Amino acid sequence: MKLEQIEFNLNGRVTKALVKPNSTLLDLLHNELKLTGTKRGCDRGDCGACTVQLNGRAVNACLVLAPQVHGKNVTTIEGIGTPEKLHPVQQAFVDMDAVQCGYCIPGLLMCAKALIEENPNPTAEQIRTYISGNLCRCTGYLHQIEAIKAAAAKIRNDSK
Amino acid sequence: MNEFEYLRPTSVAETLSHLSIYGGKSKILAGGTDLVLLLQQGIVHPSHIIDITNVSELNYIREEDGCLRIGAATRMREIETSELVRKKIPMLAEIAQLVGEIGVRNAATIGGNLVNASPAADSAPPLLVLDASLRARNAKAERTIRLTDFFVHVKKTVLAQDELVTEVVVPIPAPHSGGAFYRLAKRGGNIISIVSAGALLTLKGKVCSVARIAMGSVAPTPIRIKSAEKTLEEADPTPEKIRAAAQNAYDEIKPISDIRASAEYRRDTSRVYVRKAIEMALTRAKSWS
Q: What fold does the segment set A88-158 form as a domain?
């Protein structure tokens, strides 16, 4: 099978990779590039744990073939915030105790970030709908919804 | 996943030339939300994957001759958020929102949802009642296929191996029309419908000059329910008439039992969902402005 040479922007860096066409973006990120923040949950587009931004849009990395990202922008959890300076959605999740086991959190954060970029002032109902594809079996979502609201408010304030 | 060659055309012409060579052994990758799953599960094993996500000429929404023309590779999310769609055919924006959660709608395309030909495709019943057509091309010719003639069986359409669906043409409903779609599923988000029903009514005075009803998940393909349409056509859609139409649906369909529901449950709930769809379509037709 012919390998595909791809070049794409990953978290702000031009990244080259030689990929098997029959591998997914999730395989590429998690297994090849060792960006293990993007989690493999169901591997069939049901759980949202592998959510990343592809050209700014939240998508399931398990449903994207690796060669598809050639020429595109991919943002993963590793591309937002640093341990010293967390992204506002990350900080809000910490502040609001919105994390328990943590497995779903990278996907949820990427989904929340995409939401706030699209809609800087989402209602609780809009948040609920937007994150409905991100399953969390620990928290019951209430703190997460509050955290996303708080993060949106913080981002609105900071941009004033 | 089986091995395959990956092709990345950037134009329709290039896509059609790939299709004319690899035809039935290849698969078109539009959104990938169905295809990548099928590849992962080893259900399909094409020799070539033709990725059309970079064919920008298949991605548009425009109004022309009383229709909305939607490029086949337009994503559900784009249809859902399009001002033009919301204004001209609100029902279409509404159903685009139902096709999976955000991560799926950001990838899934309207053409893909139809070509995949699942009996449960959520965009099919609404597009059937809207009397949509598809434009399909091969390297030599182009043709129009009415959606009512498109589905043949589970996962089978009239599309030839070298043909590509390029456009979905949706007539803008006449004044005093209303449309609605309801689906029964275990929850929201990424879930396959147990039963779904769409209705479109056009009122002329008190009577329905047009009545179209369609259902998903109750037959090998999404289907129009002609007997229910007959009951409502040229009739005053009274609560009794609507109940009779819903009963027609119950009598006409022959659903199967599967992991999601029994045939009996599907028939019973069909009556309810068809009634709800007609009632909402009527309410909307009455408040048309």
A: DNA polymerase; domain 1 (1.10.150)
